[in-house]
Design goal:
The chain is mainly alpha-helical. It has helices spanning 4-19, 26-33, 37-44, 47-67, 78-87, 94-110, 114-138, 144-166, 172-191.
Length: 193
Amino acid sequence: MASRSTQILEAAARVIARRGVRGLRVEELAAEAGVSTGLIYYHFKDRTGILRHTLEFINDRAERYTRTQDPDAEPLTPREELDQVLLLELQDTPEVRENSSAWGELRASAVFDPVLREDLARATLVWVQEVAGLLGQVRPMAPAATLAASAERLTALLEGLSMRWLSGGLAIDHARTLLREAVEVELARLDRP
């Protein structure tokens, strides 16, 4: 059974995905999580604490579903690992839909919330660095600044594709094809002197 704080964070991700950050009310969160509002304040102190911890929670959950591999399977090549980490962000599963929707809502709210903006900037930087590291494993001779720029473009594209897919503006198969093509373009760009 999940800990109470995990239970609250799972509920917070659902509420944010469904109603947005502005629609997150502690009373509704408590009802969704099946706990008291006092317990939420005990674990997270205030609304900002809830948002910060929810952001960490959805990042950790994304890390799990993009890095999961059958322990009996052959190890992935660096290129396969890069593809997996990016493409598994475009899965039609409730967990990915919820995570991506909550991330998008947190991103949109950060426009008006400096504290959330800083937290999202840090989380995005970690994601970009992770993708740059994967690109560097595929193209080890590429300069660090070039890898970072490629990772920035790919993660920004992935966010946009995800939002278009989730909002019905793009079929998931097409979004995945566009992302695969973008990875090819970025890798070819990294091959240039």
